[in-house]
Amino acid sequence: MTASYNLHGDVAVIALNNPPVNGLGLATRVGITDGLGRAAADPAVKAIVITGAGKAFSGGADIKEFGSPKSHQEPNLLSVILAIENSTKPVVAAVHSVAMGGGLELALGCHYRIAAPGCSVALPEVKLGLIPGAGGTQRLPRVLGVEVALNMIVSGEPIKSEMLASLPGQKLFDKIAASAESLEQEALAYARSVAETRPLPLVRNLPCKHPVGDAYFQFARNMVAGMSKNFPAPLKCVDAVEAATKQKFDQGMVAERDLFINLMWTPESKALRHLFMAERATAKIPDVPADTPQRAVNSVAVIGAGTMGGGISMNFLNAGIPVKILEMKQEALDRGIATIRKNYESQVKRGKLKQDKYEQRMALLSTTLDYADLKDADMVIEAVFEEMGVKETVFRKLDEVMKTGAILASNTSTLDMNTIASFTKRPQDVIGTHFFSPANVMRLLEVVRGEKTGKDVLATVMALGKKIKKTTVVSGVCDGFIGNRMIEQYSRQAGFLLDEGCTPAQVDKAVEKFGFAMGPFRMGDLAGNDIGWAIRKRRALERADMKYSGTADKLCALGRFGQKTNAGWYDYVPGKRDAIPSGVVAKMIEAHRASVGVTPRKISDDEIVQRLVFALVNEGAHILEDGIASKASDIDMVYITGYGFPMHRGGPMNYADQFGLFNVVQAMNRFATNPLDDADFWKPAPLLSKLVAESKTFN
Ligand code: NAI
C-alpha cells in the first residue's frame, strides 16, 4: 500500500506512504482517489485530510516511474487534483518536511492547507528542463502573487513554509501548525472547523493579476533570458505564469500543458533528466549490491601536503572528519597548512563560511612527520609525487604501520593501481581515489577499482565520496582512467585540426559556442602544456604507433607552457588571464604544416565540434567494451562534473545518442579520409558498430 486510509472520528485521513519521499507514483495516485471515493461514500465522514507518512508530505513525481507509461497512466496527477477539487467534503492538505513539484501541486488542489514549520516548498521542475505540469504555474501565482511565484518557478529553489506564510496577503497556507509533531492533531481540528463551510474554496477561483503586467513580464523575460542562456525552460516558466494572469483558469491550464509537453521533447530537458538519473546511477555497481557491508571511516590520514593533498584534506574537514597530514619536512607541512588556511579565510571573507565553522574545521586538522602517528587512521590517501618509486616507498611503509582493515588509497592520475596495490600484503584494502584539481572545489571523484580491491572497500569509498559531496564514479584500471583516457583522444584530434588549417582560437571558439567551459587550447594553457608533453614522451616509448600533431611538442620546445610562462598557445599579459592570439604560434603552425606537406583548408565549426566530441565518444565506447566504466551514463557524469562538458548536452554519450549513433558513425567515416590521423583513429569501436546495427543507444 502506498497510501493508507484511516478514520479519526468523522475525519478521514489519507496518508501518502511511498518511501523515501512519497513520490506520486501510479499506486499512490490510485490510493488517493480510492480514499476520496471511500470518504465520499461514507456518511459518517465530514472532512478529509491528506498528509504524508514518514519523511515528507510529497517530493513530487516518483522517479522510479520516470519516463515510463505508468507516470501518466490514469489517474494522472491532473485527474487526482480534479477529484480533490470536486470533492463535496472539504479536503485539507497537512504538509510537512517536503512539499515539492507534484506534491505542492497536489496541496494547491486541496480546499485548505495547513503546514508544519520548516517544510521545504518548491516547484523544481525547471531543474529538469521542464515547467510544473499539474497546475503549479496557474495556482501558485494565485496564492503567493505573481512575482514571488514566478521567482520560485524560475529558480526551482525551495523556500521554508513559515517564510512563505509570513508574506502579506498570501493564501498558500491557511494555518501554520505549532510543530511537526502537532500537525496531524491540528489538521484534524482544522478539518472539523471547516466541515460545514460551503461553498468550498478553490485556488482556481482566486484572481491572478499583476498591476503592471506587460512591463513586469518584459522585465522578467530580460532577466531570465540573461541567466538561462542554453536552456529554454526558464523563459517558458514566464510564459506560463503570464498566461495565468491573462487567461481564464482552464485556458491557462491548456497553455501550461502545451508548454510542458513541448519542453519534454527538447534535447535540453532530455539531457537534464538523463543527468538526474545518471547522478543517482553512479552508486549502482553491477556486482556490488547496495547492502554490501561497509567499513567505518571516522578518521583520515593524507600523505603529501601539496596541491592535491591540501584540497583533499579540506573535503574531509568540511564533512567533520578529522585529518592528519604527513610530509617529509616541516617546511612542506607549514606551506600546506598555510594554503588550507588561506582557502578557508578567503571563504570567510566572501561570507561563504562562518568564522566559528572555520575554526571547527581547522581544529580537526593535525600534522606529523612520523608514519607511526598514522597507524590508527581508518583510511589513508596518498598524494605524493607521481613516480612509481616514490609510491612504492610510501605504500610499503603504510603496509607496515597501518592498522588491520585500514583503507589504503592513492590519488595517482596515471600510474597502475594494481602495481601500487602489489607493494602491500593487503591488495584487497587498496583503491584509487582520483580527485580533480582544485580538489576542494571540483565535484568529480573517480574511484579506481583495482583487480583485488575488496567489494566492501569499494562500497565504503563510494559512500564516503557521497558524504564529502562528490560525484563518485567507478573506473577500472587503465591508463588515464575514464576521463583522461578520453581527453587524450580529444587533444590529439585538436592537434590534427591545427595541422589541417585551424587556428587555436578558431577551435576554442567553436567548442565554447557548443557550450564547453573552455576550448582545448585555452585549457592546455591553464593546466600547463608541459603535462601533455611529458605524457607524449612516455607514449613515444610505450606506443610508437600513436600519432600526434607535432605542433604541441614544438610549442613546448619554445618553452611556451601556458599561463604560468605568460606564453602558450596564446600570449598573456603578466597577471592577466586573457588569451591573446599569438603571431609566434601562428608562424610555428604554418611552418609545421609546410614540414608535413599539408595545404591548409577552411574547416567549419560543425566539423571542429564533431571531430572533438566524437573522438571522446569513440574512446568512451572502447572504455565500455573494456569494462573500465560499467555504464555510459557514468562516462557522462565524468565529463559533466570533471571536464566542463556542457550540461545542456547531457555528456558526450548522451549527445551521441541524441545525435543518432548511425549519424555519428557516418560522420566518423567521413573524417576517416583525413590524411593526417593515424589509420585507426576513426575506426568505430566494435560496441558503437554493434549498437548502430541493432538500432540501439548507449544509454
Ligand atoms: P605536489 O608536488 O603539489 O605535492 C606532492 C607533495 O608530496 C609535496 O608536498 C611533497 O613534499 C610530498 N611528498 C613527496 N614525496 C613524499 C613522501 N615520500 N612522503 C611524504 N610526502 C611526500 O603534487 P600534486 O599535484 O599534489 O600531486 C600529488 C598526486 O596527485 C600525484 O600522484 C598526482 O599525479 C595526483 N594528481 C594531481 C592532480 C593535479 O592537478 N595536480 C590531479 C589529480 C591527481
Question: Care to describe what's here?
Answer:
- This protein is of the alpha/beta class.
- The chain has three domains: 3-264, 2-enoyl-CoA Hydratase, Chain A, domain 1 (Alpha-Beta Complex); 300-475, Rossmann fold, CATH 3.40.50.720; 483-693, N-(1-d-carboxylethyl)-l-norvaline Dehydrogenase, domain 2 (Orthogonal Bundle).
- 48% of the residues lie in helices and 11% in strands.
- The chain has 28 helices and 19 strands.
- An eight-stranded mixed β-sheet has the order 12-11-10-13-14-15-16-17, with helices on both faces. Strands 1-2-3-4-6-9 form a six-stranded mixed β-sheet, with helices on both faces. A three-stranded mixed β-sheet has the order 5-7-8.
- Helix 4 (136-144) crosses helix 5, helix 11 (267-281) packs across helix 25 (632-642) and helix 18 runs antiparallel to helix 24.
- The protein is globular and about 90 Å long.
- It binds 1,4-dihydronicotinamide adenine dinucleotide.
- Residues 303-309, 326-328, 332, 383-386, 390, 393-394, 411-413, 435-437 line the site of 1,4-dihydronicotinamide adenine dinucleotide (NAI).
